[in-house]
Amino acid sequence: MKTREEIASLIYESLLNEKHNLKELFLETKDKIGFFYIDNLLPEDLVAEIHANFPKLEETVQRKNSRESKYVAYQMNRFNPLLEEIIYAFQDQRIVDLISEICATKNIVADEFLYAGGLSLMNKNSFLNPHLDNSHDKDRNLWRVFNLLFYVTPNWKLDNGGNLELWQDGISNKQITIKSEFNRLVVMATHKNSWHSVSKVVADETRCCVSNYYFSKYPLLENEEFHITTFRGNPSEKIKDKFLQVDNLLRSTARKLFKKGVRENPHQYKK
């Protein structure tokens, strides 16, 4: 089994080889939702091995409500060790520094506790409505600044659904769709304008993703304020959108009263 250091070296080499192009892509998009993606990040046999060792759905935590439907796993010592190695490979300082350079952003740190990160699985009818990620880390000391999504499901088709959608002109306008392509890494900025979603999975298959967040002492945009994970309806979901706006208000009010939340968010790696 490859170690996180060995995997990180492979990631670093791929990113370094494409650094100029990735810088250009991020620069072109940074005024809205800055992002870039890179294909063929790792050797295919390694990514296939990672996918083959993903937990079964019954071994994960299901999150299903009007906002989202997906499965997550974050207590990594319960699963095949390779899964922990791939997650923490993205937290190697070489990778953090290189992505920092590509995105022209300083003072970035990785999150060893995998707050809201880890593994994500989506099967038929799973979805994520348009949303803004929670603005901070679990202790509200650092700003969330980047989301790293590494897709590992072989032969994933665009028509399967389960693809990343970026609403860079707001949720009233057409979104950009980024296919959940096997062996593709997507890096996107997270801030008060970073509306994104995952389209409903329509195929009888499971889409698997390795996710990480990077944080910083400083937000990416000026005039940022703390916010919870904030959901909206798709443009066609008028009634649901009104319901979600009320839901956002209620949850946001509760968070103002209880800075750390009514209860500790369980979505973190308890080492």
Report on this structure:
- The chain is an alpha+beta fold.
- It has one domain (4-257): Jelly Rolls.
- Helix content is 27%, strand content 24%.
- It is built from six helices and 13 strands.
- It has helices spanning 4-17, 19-29, 44-52, 81-89, 93-102, 238-257; strands spanning 35-38, 61-64, 68-73, 108-110, 118-122, 127-132, 143-151, 164-166, 176-178, 184-189, 196-198, 207-216, 230-231.
- Strands 1, 2, 3, 4, 5, 6, 7, 8, 9, 10, 11, 12 and 13 form a 13-stranded antiparallel beta sheet that branches.
- Helix 1 (4-17) packs parallel to helix 4 and helix 1 runs parallel beside helix 5.
- The two termini are 22 Å apart.
- The relative contact order is 0.19.
- The model has no long low-confidence stretch (mean pLDDT 95).
* Overall spatial form: globular
How much helical structure, as a percent, in the residues? 25-40%
Distance between the termini: 22 Å
Label the structural class. alpha+beta
| Gross CATH architecture | Sandwich
Unreliably modeled segments: none
> Please, how many domains?
1
Strand content: 15-25%
Rounded mean pLDDT score:
95
Quickly count the helices. Answer: 6
Radius of gyration from CA coordinates: 18 Å
* Helix and strand sequence: HHEHEEHHEEEEEEEEEEH
CATH class membership: Mainly Beta
Work out the number of β strands.
13
- CATH fold title: Jelly Rolls
Main sheet makeup: 13 strands, antiparallel
Fourth CATH level, the homologous superfamily:
q2cbj1_9rhob like domain
